[in-house]
Amino acid sequence: MVNEKKLDSIIQKIHESGYDGMLLYDIKNIQYVSNYKPTSIAFCILKENPVIFTSKMDMENAKNTSEITLKEYESIPQVIKSIKSEHDKNGTKNDINSGLLIEGSLAFNIYDKFKQDFKIKQSDILEKERMIKTKEEVDKIKTACNIAHKSLLDLDILKKQEESFSELMASYELGMLIRENGGSEESFNTIIATGKKTSLPHSSPSKEKMKQPILVDWGCKYMDYCSDTSRTYTYTEKEAEIEVIVLEAYNTAIKSVKPGKKLCEIDKVARDIITDYGYGDNFIHSTGHGLGLDIHEKPNVSKNDQTILEKDMIITIEPGIYLEGKFGIRIEDTVHVQNKGKVLGKLKPILN
Amino acid sequence: MVNEKKLDSIIQKIHESGYDGMLLYDIKNIQYVSNYKPTSIAFCILKENPVIFTSKMDMENAKNTSEITLKEYESIPQVIKSIKSEHDKNGTKNDINSGLLIEGSLAFNIYDKFKQDFKIKQSDILEKERMIKTKEEVDKIKTACNIAHKSLLDLDILKKQEESFSELMASYELGMLIRENGGSEESFNTIIATGKKTSLPHSSPSKEKMKQPILVDWGCKYMDYCSDTSRTYTYTEKEAEIEVIVLEAYNTAIKSVKPGKKLCEIDKVARDIITDYGYGDNFIHSTGHGLGLDIHEKPNVSKNDQTILEKDMIITIEPGIYLEGKFGIRIEDTVHVQNKGKVLGKLKPILN
Q: Which parts of the sequence belong to the Peptidase M24 domain (chains A, B) (predicted)?
């Protein structure tokens, strides 16, 4: 949960936009404002006196974790009726008259039920607030990076490769090390791609024996906050040649990170280098993304993201070159925006 | 992917509802109709000649898995423009004039962009089709159940408890066994709850040593299809007394499964038994849910679900009693609706 000061600032922004409250349905948004992580349907009405509607099944869990007023969720009509006729402790009517902000991610069939009764407007207040991390959030992400990095070193993947481990079992052992080292779980399904499959940026680990090269894209959660790192172990001269280009794009992009720059400018720095070497068409994804409670959050380090970098954003920088049917190389780190970009963790970008 | 016959029947139903096509954004819906499992943004326009818009990053993967025509996704305006001005091989105009069906789960901000250009209507065609499993789907779910069950027996959780394993490490070892036994991954984060925490239906495994009783709710995926099972190991007389009640509700609910019944009637069978014993308020969730590519699919075995059971639906039956601050007991199996309900897998409902 963010601190009370930040919560007050969010509620103030809701009011400044001319609305009484905001409907939260996204699990991570509810966790962000309340510390309660729903495991079943839940709604938070974020307003002067916020209230969370949660399932009977989750009530004990919610009581143990959140300080926000709880009500048992029965149905959407019940939620609507309740927030339309609410009174505070002093008997003052405290309902939602001016309308309700909603998240962009809200499912159509839920929007459709609320829109009968409220003036509705989509708002990115939560996404924007979550972009700027508090000191506590930065510390958690940094710890997650350190745990993830130590776990990869503990895994000794080159030895696993010699021992004919499958991609699946190597990724599974990495997960065990993450837990032993203090992480709670992977922040996404670990990618261990080897051989030709490294040219698929989102390959799934298979039961086949590990081949060469080896691309690992992995992360863990520490107190619900995510890390995200990629490393590639190269073997041939051609692979090493491509690796040097990716490394130059990675280093230059990280050096270009500072408050005031646009995210699309950071993407351009990495993309221009790779394009100059003739591999522009082989850099088939964005240069990076924000992360926090979710593994992908705003902003994007992409061609089209005009967001301006601010202090205490945390983004990944992950240039890659993918040669279909041959191999792919990616180097990725998690970067904290201070006066310049600071890589979280101390794992060298090239490990073999 | 479902078979071609089923795909044709879905497209026919779209036309019967007076629309030219349906916009699919849900990853599992796209996988269901195409066999391609998106790892990044993707849209499928399901129509006479379906087309999938996929990211550059996913293109190689999509080409390898799907037979549906692929286009590279650039932006939503590009998708809109493309499907508004499409011609088939013979030059016949083949665009979406009559409007576009959407999924209930579609994010508001995507709906909002399409609604400018199309008459939009929410449809549950895909949800309804996915409720009725093909023989291939049933076989995959059955195999997933068998792998999951064997893995729990291999784990020997009572020994792990004696050896002072933590809930987290026991659940992790169960995951490894699932992979060794032929599953690809867990179908959801394994719940191993012990001691008082068994009263939280969705407890997360902690690093604390395992206590008594032990509740395990776990499943695996086999060829992308999910299993879902729960077992509770009881120790005290009081726990055994509650277990007998849950078992009666479980057995009677399964016996009541047959085509033609309403889902809410099945829920009532289990709920009435537990209520008769005085624990109605302690059965704090629904009796079950559908499953398939997703761990939770339609229909729900709940108070409010009026859906009528049909042959080849697959649902869970999972009554439970939760005594806050004391303990909880749940017994769950995956049930295939034939002329009567057939439990998938052969694991005894009570294991100690």
A: 140-338
